[in-house]
Amino acid sequence: MALIVVCGPPAAGKSSWIQAHATARDIVIDLDLITRALSGPGAPQWNQDPIVLRVAHKARYAAMYEAFELRDKVDVYLIHTMPSAKALAKYKRLDAEIVAVDPGRDIVMERIAAMRSPEMQRVATRWYNQRKRLPQPAMPQASRQW
User: Please, what is the angle between helix 31-38 and helix 50-70, to 10°?
Assistant: First the structure.
């Protein structure tokens, strides 16, 4: 059993990568899915409402805490877009596999323009500027037809 931390810019295909690798028995901690589960009817698929995100982050941290304790029993997939050096050190102590998903800046920016909040372009730019700390992408091509 393993802890797999999936990194990458917004709209890179991190969730798609997990869908291709995880099984129904695995634990998947995805802030977008948590936020969607906590949002009311009619909320956008990628809800960036600060109040909902605050609650979703707290739920994510609680799920991470518990899942890390169970990683010897099931595979745990965690999406962490841009882990800090401190977070990477913790994942290393937990023997995590770090996977970077990146179809390339142009594809990411096109997807963000089509589907996400414009502020996600800033997040993607920051990810590309800091990506030196992460392994080479596991998925250098587009994850699917968009």
Answer: 120
Mean pLDDT by runs of 10 across the 146 residues of the chain is 96 96 97 92 81 95 97 97 93 96 96 90 93 62 48
Q: Do the Cβ atoms of 138 and 90 come closer than 8 Å?
A: no
- In this prediction, residue 96 carries a pLDDT of 97
Which residues lie closer than 8 Å to 80 by C-beta, 6 or more apart?
5, 6, 7, 87
Distance (Å, rounded) from C-alpha 59 to C-alpha 37? Answer: 11
Domains, the chain, in order of start with CATH, read 3-139 (3.40.50.300)
Backbone angles phi, psi at 12, to 5 degrees: -80, -25
124 neighbors 11 (Cβ within 8 angstroms): yes
Question: What token pair was written down for 36?
Answer: 């969607």
The answer to whether 112 touches 120, Cβ cutoff 8 Å, is yes
Rounded to whole angstroms, the Cα distance separating 54 from 60 reads: 10
